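Can't paste images in this forum, so I'm doing it all in text. The chain is below; anyone willing to post the predicted structure tokens underneath?
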Amino acid sequence: MNTEIIENTLLALINEFKKDEEEKYNAVENTIKSIHKSFLEEEELKTNILNQIFPKIKTIIEEVKEEMKKYPPQFCIFDAVNLQRYENYNSNLLANFLKINIEYEGTKLSFVKDFLIYLNNKLKWDYYGLKSIEELEKINHSDINIKREKYAYRRRMDLFISYKKDFAIIIENKIYASDQPNQLNDYYKKNQDIYNNIYIIYLTPYGNEPNENSLSSNVRKELGDNFKTLKHCDIALWLENILENEKYCFFHKENILFKENDNKYIKDYRLLKSAMIQTIHNANMLGNNTKEIDMTKEKIRKLLKENIFEDIQTVEDAEEYKKIFNSVIDIINEKEWSIKAKPHIEFTQKVLDYLKKNGESKSYTFLAEKEILNGIVNKNKYPHNIEFKTINEANVILENNNNGTDIDFHFGIYTENERTIKKIKKLDEEINNIFEKFSKDSSGWIYIYYINTEKDIPEEIAIAMIKLYDLLKENL
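Text version of the structure:
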């Protein structure tokens, strides 16, 4: 509601209270009715505007799809195989690019050195005395250490780049996962006495800032300009710079195939170049930095200017419309997760049907479909679709987990009790005889198996759960 209307209404209320008692009550009643009517009229107006806009947005999306057909197909391998938003794969990819070291016609070229130069230009980092590009160029590739998941106390850093004892760059790659308490603090403290200078990059799709519980204000103050946020599209820019750099011009030479015996070999740099192009596209897609998104945004901006922007005159107005559109996004997200969860819920129901027929009904609890969906939609929740009774702090559980991009679906034995863990490990042979596909020791899951709803058989999972429960009951 407009601030001016609220102020005028309150002034009217104050004036009415100054009147006689009987008139006062009548006036207040009428004023409240007036406020309510004003609210209803304003909400009805907004509802009508939105009802006009949503069909137009659907039309815009269809128009953009048609227009995009004029462009070459934008095929992203990572998206096609559902690996686009998995942080570990993304970090592996970046680490492997950084390790590339090429010697071409007497010239030594290093991707990690070019990455350092890119950061130097973008972030003005001098790497503790290496203030010029010429000095950076003189570094030997072999002296630069690149590690994935380097340990810092009980944590693992996504990417760690170091040069002797001069400096270290810590890259924390976040796509969907949330910060852990003291995460960046621990990374810094573990290395601050080892290297002359510590740099931290917080890499996210949109350049988000870390939570203060991960990077405290004190540590951030110590780091100063040595802490920076980057977007994934910045990684795309670094790779684009390499492709456009004159010293890498041989990447674009004519393809050469040569044959040896019955095998054909690629003698040029097609595979590397295509991998770079795919990675550039993937990094841009992570941050919605693509031609299709740009076209859609521009058309929607025009639509909003024509229909809504005149009604947004204050910050309060803008916040109110943001709430409305955020609610729409939340509802669409819920719908998406419910579609993804459907195979898991159907599989769970078949496991449950078998347990009801063949298991002891008092030995386990289970969640209704609505409860499972609520757990999946609310990220960082782990709905226990089916859970057997606790035995010495150990459980046999069938569980879902929203990992941000997809839904993990697994079952196994869970406990964090050290004594119970030792006892369970003594039963390793018996457990493998029950279900031989288990992985072991995964963050409290002493035994865990990730279920494939298309290939696994619900009855087999149900039988394994019953047998595991009986085994624990007899031995713990």
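The longest helix spans residues 21-68. The domain at 341-475 is CATH 3.30.1460 (Yope Regulator; Chain: A,).
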